[in-house]
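Field reference: sequence -> structure
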Amino acid sequence: MKKLLLATMITLASSGAMASIETKDWHDTASEEGKAFAEQAIVLDFFASPAEFGWTSERMLGNYIDLAHSRGVTGASITIGTPSESTWALYLEALKKYEKGIDVATTPIVRVRNVEDFQRAHDEGAYAVMWNNQSTMMLEAMPAE
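Structure field:
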């Protein structure tokens, strides 16, 4: 299995600043060795930009995924659960917004269920999406079944 590189390429603070896609693109300033490495290795992006805050439209998120993938990024660990999504209903609402955003990307998407999905996305030329959370607050408020 190829080396798994967890590369933090962007981190968006939840300070209210809108980040353009240009601020997330490292490719034009990368060395040729860096570009080659990104093409060969499994490179993961991490970001925590709330839907409709950092990404003001579904198309913006889809465009970013397409750009990142074209630059050799295998996928991303996307933070959708923060203390502001403190109930299960709010968490699911945030998840739906992100799902709509990734669905407008033209790049094929692999939704990560296990570590092998990163390799599969890399091998198939797809973009891996792994959801993550900053807290478990939404689970504490989850309705009983």
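Note: Residues 113 and 130 are 8 Å apart (CA to CA).
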